[in-house]
User: What shape does this take?
Amino acid sequence: MLSKTSLPKVFTIPTVAILLVLSMVPTVFAVIIALQNRVLGQPAMDFVWLSNFIDLFSDRRFLNAVWVSVKWEFVTVIATMTVAIVLGVLMFQYASPRMRNFYCLLFIVPVLLPRVSAAFVWKFAFHPLYGIVTYPIRAITGKPVDLLGNANAALYVVATVDVWQWGLLFAVIVLKLLETLPPQPLEAAQLDHARGWQVHYYITLPMLRAPLISLTFVKMIESLRSFDLIYVMTRGGPGVATETLDMYAFSQGFIEAGKVSYASSMAVLMMVATVVIFTILWKRVQ
Amino acid sequence: MIKTFGLSASLALTCLLSTSPLATALAQGLTCTQPIKVLAQPRDGLTLLENYQDEFKQLSGTTFQIDYLNENDRRAKSRADASTVGNYNVYYVDEANVALFASSDWIVPLTDYYPAEYDFADFDPGRQKVATYNDKVWFAPLTGGGDLMVYRKDLLEAAGVTPPTTLEEFEAAVVKLTDADNGIYGIALRGARGSGANVWRWMPYFKANGGEWFVDGKPAFNSEAAVKATETYLELFKYSPPGTQTGSWDESVGSFLSGQVALLVESTPLAGMAVDPNNSLVVDSVGFLPPPAPLPGGGYGHGLAIATKANADETAKQCAGLFVAWATSKEQEQRRLEAYQFGELNRTSIITSQMFADIYGPALGEALAATGKVTAVNFWQDARWPDLGDRWGIILEELINGTRTDVKGSLDELEAYANELLTQ
Assistant: This one.
């Protein structure tokens, strides 16, 4: 009996221990640094405890970065899931099996592009004078339009690139999920003369609720890691219009001030907020 | 303007090589075992240097590897690397961060490890000055200089505008020359954040209005001069091409070289690019003058410095020093001159050579001489400058893009931050 109960522990304890070391060491280190006043290049440092955290709440750029991050999260997650579901359903409904394979191949390509390369390509595509995306506006109005230089538009323009990469990939996943559904409920609905959108709204999508929620969570986590895309396309600008929390933390830590403790306090706060919010959401969903 | 100088170039190089310090360095018996790792930003001169890997290997016994990042990324990464792991033997530093690197002991005094036969004194005195901090030389120049006003003769002639020599004339000309409907803009400026980006181009206006960073030992960043300079800069931005509001050197210079801009006050390497058919569409219609008075030129210099951490022992420092000396030697500059890399020339012996005059003509030489007289160090030479300059860069970018409108309030915020920095 003893061997039966202890065997799982034998296998799991080393793995869990390694995972704990890998995840906890940098986390604890980040928390310790956040409680100090370390600055790159200055050997002297002291514990200032919660001073960095208190300073954050009177820092206008930090408050702006929180707001930008929240907007970024909402915009990219909602838009990605909408694009994925709409395209997935359209492919399932109207495309032949051969065309579906073709679309799948096509839609996977954007996410295979390195993020930084994609960002550079799109940055040039949105150039006010030479960009292919802005060309129609130039042709119609005769005036160039600088979308990445517009504080009201820049975040949404960058979000478009994020959705282009992830929305199309998720559309393929949604299509494959739809193809795994049993055909009987769909055939029954068709016998009842249900319209196409009704079939999906009332039958297929509710049946896919669990995987779609999982995809949403995956995208929520992925959207928290969009530093490279935003950094290449706007560097957080114009001004601070697209400066997310991770970008501001990097900027304070390595670009501008070398205030690694201050940057670390942002990272810790972001980690705590993320864990709390995700836990609440996960429990509500369950 | 640019001609082929195959035979004369070969002869000149042969002469230089015959008196080369390479042989002397070989005789020193210095053998380097570890490859020299260099963190730099893209420069034509460094790209050219990579063609001569074998030459360096013969000289030192080792190779070198250069990793390139654009200016802001290079600054961020070199700062992070120097203060933590120290992976790189040689850093590309510039006028804005040399004080920080030197005072943090991230780099060592250059001349301690710069072999005498490479003749450091041959560098342009202005560039030597920028490379000096606290009476010690920290880097060997790869590029540097001041500002030039580069203008389109054809556009000015068509508009009946004489090349402006004062700021007032300049502002009036910018307005008159702008024809946005036909894709012509009076000026191009830098909008992107950064002490070396938008702030760099703003500083001459600050200084031209009598601005000083400190008055009686106290910060004076929100002075009347700063307000006036900012207002002028924002006003001029109305006549700058789309894309420059969030762009930097590449965008503003690119606009000029592609024929969209009539007047441009920029760092001197622009002059070489403007007359190079490989870079410029306006080769035949470019004129040069010093910046309109009283704008001072922005004295700057970039170069290679020896890292402290990655070069733990004396031999490693000597190897890094040998690389820096070889990379910035007369031989390399001669090669850059032959490759028409105007912006990569720093040595007096090269700039005053007959070949330089033959290639670039007398007008550019005269403009360079004239601009040298008005070139000044405009920034605050202090380790805290990058922090303060970058803070102002972000605020200025917000003003340029209209997310802020209160100029005085913005400068008050900068002043408060400067006071905070000084008390730390």
